[in-house]
Design goal:
By secondary structure, the chain is of the alpha/beta class. Helix content is 50%, strand content 9%. It is built from 14 helices and eight strands. The chain has helices spanning 2-25, 34-43, 57-70, 88-96, 121-130, 136-148, 171-227, 239-261, 268-290, 330-337, 363-380, 384-389, 392-398, 437-440; strands spanning 46-48, 74-79, 101-106, 109-114, 312-316, 324-328, 346-349, 352-355. The strands form three sheets. The protein has a four-stranded mixed beta sheet, sandwiched between helices. Helix 7 (171-227) packs antiparallel against helix 8, helix 7 (171-227) runs parallel beside helix 9 (268-290) and helix 8 (239-261) runs antiparallel to helix 9 (268-290). The longest helix is centred in the middle third of the chain and has 57 residues, at 171-227. It starts with a helix and ends in a 9-residue tail after the last helix. The model is unreliable at 1-10, 20-28, 161-174, 402-409 and 430-449 (pLDDT under 50).
């Protein structure tokens, strides 16, 4: 009898079990707090709040695949208009813990923030302004495509599988996903590692090309020291002269040591900075020995830093560029005054010998060590190197731009946790300012939402 009763009740039992499974697979109340959004973005690039319908699940999936295919750390959140906005960007960046570009669609308003190592604040501002007033789908696609073309970094290794846009998944999908993630997660991780390995190989190739020029600089300074007719024990030597001489020797040894330890182009900045310090010490030593006033600290000769510290500024116009004042040595000052060409430092390129400012991005850190970040924009504007150094992609591969060539830090896609510059994520969404950012189409960026 029990067996018969069991058989007769089997269809009803299956229905009951199915209802239980569906109930377990569908969340009763979705957690939409910042911590939950952060967890979701660690798994995929797009999060859509279940309380908003401005972006469909299919469109969210397509956008996520677009970002993953580009292998860039772009994080997109689509939230209701009444979502709390206080410290939203900084809190979300902390919750996610990954260096990248963060874009938020809040109702019909839109804003973004990024770690400056991935994309400059100015670039983010311009990108946001360029998409104001568009519908959600168009706006997010346009913003993402434009950002992907210029930002640095790689997708985080934690991404795997397709984003679900914030919706629930079936019990069957969870079972299938468990098996797929084992293989798919390993594949995604391999792709990310391959991308980063490729970038490291490109950096090493750039460093190898740059090493030839830096070794020439170190050799030239060593020859200056060999030619120097000075001995610390000579009759007229005093403590100040000996200190200058020791600083020059130390700079030479430091330059060799730094270059031996260099692993990427931006490491070269420390080398050329040491050489510049050493040459200034030699200039001070020469002035003391000759009884002349000590020289002021000036940048080296722009045309070739091996010429030593500059003595004046002279007007110079590069081919196709605008006139600018550059620091020059006495010999190049005389050449320019006579209408002759200066003695320009040329290096080997794939197109033959070219001035260093037209030789490629790797020479940015080399020039930065000699001239410092503050002086370079005016010197290199209009040149190939100057144009490259002002782009976010340059900052990712060779340093962080004009101001700082070797700051280190986390690359885009790296897990940094709460270790990030809060200024990169401040403002916006009503955090102070009160400007009408969302509806103005390129108004005052600082006002925020």
């Amino acid at each position: 009898m029990k067996v018969v009763a069991w058989g007769r009740s089997l269809p009803g039992l299956l229905v009951a079990l199915l209802l239980v499974a569906l109930t377990m697979a569908s969340p009763a109340a979705a957690d939409t707090g910042v911590s939950a959004i952060g967890r979701a973005l660690r798994e995929g690039p797009v999060y859509v709040d279940p309380g908003t319908s401005s972006l469909s699940s299919a469109d969210a999936d397509a956008l996520a695949q677009r970002i993953k295919k580009a292998d860039k750390p772009v994080f997109v959140a689509v939230l209701p208009a009444d979502y709390p906005t206080a410290n939203l960007f900084s809190d979300l960046r902390t919750a996610t813990g990954i260096t990248g570009l963060y874009a938020i669609r809040l109702g019909d308003r839109f804003d973004a923030r990024a770690d400056s190592r991935v994309l400059s604040n100015a670039a983010v501002k311009n990108l946001v302004s360029s998409v104001q007033g568009e519908d959600a789908k168009t706006q997010l696609i346009d913003f993402t495509d434009r950002a992907l073309a210029s930002m640095g970094g790689s997708a985080p290794a934690s991404w795997g599988g397709s984003p679900d846009g914030g919706g629930g998944v079936s019990g069957t999908a969870l079972i299938v996903a468990g098996g797929v993630l084992v293989a798919g997660g390993a594949g995604a991780y391999t792709l990310v590692r391959r991308s980063r390995r490729r970038r490291l190989e490109e950096q090493r190739a750039a460093l190898d090309k740059l090493r030839v020029v830096v070794d020439e600089d170190i050799t030239a300074f060593g020859e200056e020291l060999d030619r120097l007719d000075f001995h610390p024990a000579e009759p007229h030597a005093d403590d100040a002269m000996r200190a200058d001489y020791e600083r020059a020797l130390d700079a030479y040894e430091q330059a060799k040591s730094y270059m031996a330890a260099a692993t990427k182009p931006e490491d070269v900045r420390a080398v050329t900075q040491a050489l510049e310090d050493g040459r200034f010490s030699l200039a001070q030593l020469a002035a003391r020995r000759e009884g002349r006033p000590l020289p002021e600290r000036r940048a080296p000769c722009f045309f070739d830093p091996r010429h030593g510290p500059s003595v004046a500024d002279a007007t110079w116009t590069p081919a196709g560029g605008a006139p600018r004042e550059v620091p020059v040595c006495a010999a190049d000052q005389a050449r320019l005054a006579d209408g002759r060409d200066p003695m320009i430092r040329e290096v080997d390129t794939d197109y033959g010998r070219r001035p260093y400012w037209d030789a490629g991005p790797a020479y940015g850190p080399w020039a930065g060590g000699y001239f410092g970040g503050g002086l370079l924009p005016g010197l290199l504007v209009g040149t190939l190197l100057g144009s490259m150094m002002s782009t976010p992609s340059y900052a990712s591969d060779y340093g962080t731009g004009y101001g700082d060539f070797g700051s280190g830090g986390y690359d885009g896609g790296d897990v940094s946790g709460a270790n990030f510059d809060p200024d990169d994520f401040s403002g916006g969404f009503g955090d102070g300012g009160g400007g009408d950012f969302g509806g103005g189409g390129g108004g005052d960026f600082g006002g925020g939402f």
